[in-house]
Amino acid sequence: xxxxxxxxxxxxxxxxxxxxxxxxxxxxxxxxxxxxxxxxxxxxxxxxxxxxxxxxxxxxxxxxxxxxxxxxxxxxxxxxxxxxxxxxxx
Length: 90
What we know:
By secondary structure, the chain is mainly α. It contains three helices and two strands; from the N terminus they run ββααα. It has a two-stranded antiparallel sheet. Strand 1 (4-7) and strand 2 form a beta hairpin. The model has no long low-confidence stretch (mean pLDDT 92). Keywords: Iron.
């Protein structure tokens, strides 16, 4: 049975994540307030950011940068600016 959360990103009830995918307090917040759909959106952005900025996930500064981007994206609904990336016209 899937769980429903009020997704802060989508601003509506949506299917929640099956388990906590991120550690700590932030992970709990994501688990309780972010939907699968919003998390999937973030994963796409995260991959683009890591590739574009050549982030090293072993580097604490890079991880901190990514976490800030993730928080802004999921909870502040700020779009992630990816240099050299133009979103497709919808």
